[in-house]
Design a protein that fits this description.
- The N and C termini lie far apart (61 Å).
- This protein has 4 helices and no strands.
- It has helices at residues 2-42, 46-60, 64-77, 84-94.
- α1 packs across α2 (46-60), α1 packs across α3 (64-77) and α2 crosses α3 (64-77).
- By secondary structure, it is mainly alpha-helical.
- The protein is elongated.
- 22% of the residues are buried.
Length: 133
Amino acid sequence: MTDHQGLHDKIAALQREVDQLRHALVSHAVVDQAIGVLRAVHGLGGRESWDVLQQVSQDLNVKLREVAADVLRWADSGRLPDRTGPALREAVAAAGPTLARPALTPWRQPSEQPEARPPEPGTRCAGTDAQPR
């Protein structure tokens, strides 16, 4: 009977571990995608983009994957949550100017522009002095 309980406990522990690994894998994918958005939109390097996400996470005292999810929502909708926008702008600015970095250009709403997509990397668009919403 003890062996049976030990086996049951081991199976339950392994199931918890599998669930944690699945969650980590999804979180990792979200963070990687957000890094890609920051790289494409702001011309940051991979390490700079990671540092921006980490800084915003620390400044807002929220999990990094939540900040990454906010960045992805921004990529889809053109809007950032009120809590994230100012912290993200500040962290991107603190990453330092890079000559190869395109201007910080927000995406427009579909009603303002036929296609609500980020600008092509390395191109300048009208309204480049605007901030992410």
